[in-house]
Design brief:
By secondary structure, this protein is of the alpha+beta class. Helices cover about 50% and strands about 15% of the residues. It has helices spanning about 15-20, 35-50, 85-95, 100-105, 110-125, 155-165, 170-180, 190-195, 200-205, 210-235; strands spanning about 55-60, 70-75, 100, 130, 135, 145, 150-155. A hairpin with a 5-residue loop joins strand 1 (about 55-60) and strand 2. The radius of gyration is 17 Å and the shape is globular. The chain starts with 13 loop residues before the first helix and ends with a helix. The model is unreliable at about 1-10 (pLDDT under 50).
Length: about 240
């Protein structure tokens, strides 16, 4: 069964916060958002969130070659009310049983649509606004509007506090840090030197559950595939 435990719900989903991490302080989009790892990370954030919300379950089984695979199993079809999540849920529920790696690959071409839906939802709630190809924070304090009776500090600040300030992450933030790491988003606001110095800390606090590990495997395979294709094209 899945080893994801339901974290404290901050009123904002993992996929929304992953998209917010790709927005620079000046409202521009980080270059890392154009890499395959980001798109697969967005898909993975949707899959992990659906497991957390009880729509999907993850079960480890032996694959055809005997190696363990994390299979995704639909267990509830009730919509979440979030377009990006419900779009992924509908496809996984209607499709054949696949592993987390296979679903990440299958859904990867739709990553752009998932990002668009997440950003539109963030705009509808007054967290960001689109202006001249930039996404500007509506609230200059870098806190989300009051959600579930309280304000929530923006994800980038929370992650920085955990990694640089030694803070203790919530279960939600631990998963977010793990997804941000494999998606390459930490490179958007931490220097190469900081990332090298914090490598052990990131591994310590960044949780990769069964599904996120499958996403990481899919990212590694995609990077290797593109590298081989580039080498062959150059011959």
């Amino acid at each position: 069964m899945s080893d994801v435990s339901a974290p404290e719900r901050p009123g904002i989903s993992l996929v929304e916060e992953l998209c917010l991490l790709a927005i620079e302080d000046d409202g521009s989009v980080a270059s890392t958002a154009g890499e395959p790892a980001f798109g697969m990370g967005v898909v993975g954030a949707c899959l992990v969130e659906l497991c957390i919300r009880g729509r999907l379950d993850a079960d480890v089984r032996a694959g055809e070659d005997g190696t363990p695979e994390t299979m995704l199993i639909p267990i509830a079809s009730t919509p979440t009310g979030e377009p990006a999540l419900d779009s992924v849920l509908a496809e996984v529920s209607a499709g054949p049983e696949r592993s987390a790696v296979e679903w990440t690959r299958q859904l990867f071409p739709r990553a752009g649509d998932l990002v668009r839906m997440a950003l539109e939802r963030l705009q509808s709630r007054g967290i960001i606004e689109a202006k001249e190809a930039r996404f500007l924070w509506v609230m200059k304090s870098r806190r989300y509007p009051v959600i579930e009776g309280r304000e929530l500090q923006e994800a980038k600040l929370r992650i920085t506090d955990v990694l640089l300030g030694g803070g203790i992450p919530s279960p939600h933030d631990s998963v977010l840090i793990g997804l941000a790491s494999i998606s390459g988003l930490l490179r958007g606001f931490l220097s190469s030197q900081e990332l090298r110095r914090l490598e052990d800390r990131i591994a310590e606090v960044g949780s990769l559950d069964l599904v996120a590990r499958g996403v990481e495997e899919a990212i590694e395979e995609e990077v290797a595939l593109r590298a081989r294709a580039m080498m062959i094209a150059g011959m």
